[in-house]
Queue: 3 jobs
Job 1
Amino acid sequence: MPRRFDFAGLIAPVSQGAFFSDTYERNHLVIARSDPTFYAGLLDLDTVMNCIETMPILADAISMVKFGADQHPTDYLGADRTADPRRVLAMFDDGWTIALNRMEMQLP
C-alpha cells in the first residue's frame, strides 16, 4: 500500500484532532519512525536536482552540511549567489547533505 504524504499521513499515528488540540503552536511534535525508508518517496534526489538546476535557489535557501558542520557558501554558490548545480552535486557525491529551506514556497 503506498504511503500517504498528506498531512494526516505525515503526522500518523497522531490524529489531526490531537495535533491541533495538544501540539499545534504549543509543543514540538517528534515522531520516532523505526522504518528508515518511511519518507523515501516524499522527495528524491532527482526532484532536488531539478529544483537546483531550474530555479534560482538563493544563498539563504540552501546550505551544505557534513558531520554537523556547514560548508562555506562560496564553495557551492555561483557568482550570482545562487546554487551552482555542478558544485552542489559534486559535494553531495562527496557525502555532503543538501539542506533546502522554504522549498514548500517554491514547489507545486
Job 2
Amino acid sequence: MMFMTLYLTQKLNFPLTNVGYLLLWFGVGSLTGAYGGAIFVSRIGPRRMMDLVLLVGSLPFFILVFVRDPILIGMVIFYGSVRWGVPAPLQ
C-alpha cells in the first residue's frame, strides 16, 4: 500500500482528497481483519487460517489492475486490507 497514493494520483489522476478517503478504508479493513481473524483462528486453527489468507490474499492485487471506478477501488482496498489484518492474531 506504500505506493497506492502515487498510483491513484499519478496514473488514475484522482484528487488527493479522494485518495485520502480511499486509503481510510485500508485502516478500517485492517481493524476488521484483525478482529475477524481472531474469531476464525479460534475456529479453524492457525495453520489452516494462514493457508486460507495466503491463497485468497492475492486476489485484490489482480483485481486492482482492472478497476478504475473510485468506489470499486475503495472496496478492493478494503478487501485487501482485511487480508493484511487477519494474520495479526497469528503472530
Job 3
Amino acid sequence: MHTALTVWLLRLGVRVIHGRSYQPSPRPFPAELPPIEYAPGAVVRRVQAKGAIALHGQYYQLGRTFQGYSVAVQPTLAPDGVTVQFCHETIAELDLTQPDA
C-alpha cells in the first residue's frame, strides 16, 4: 500500500525505497539558530515582504524565500555589479544598471 507521500514522490520521479523506516538524524539541531552576522563594514539589507532589496533607490528581486532576513551586498570586479550573500552563500549577482520593474 502506498502512502500519499510515496505517491507524490513517485509522481515527481523520486525513487522510493520500500522496507526502510525513517530514522531521525542523530545530529543535534538547536532550538534556535544563531543570528546571521556579516563582516564589519558590509552593506547589509533586509529582504522585504515581496522578496526584494533596495539599493540606490532601486529594487532588486531575490525571492520570497529570503523575506525578513538580512543579506550582505558586495561589489564585484564589474563596474556596476554586486553579489548578494545569505550567510556564507552567494545567492545572486546583480547588475545595478538593470533594476527590477
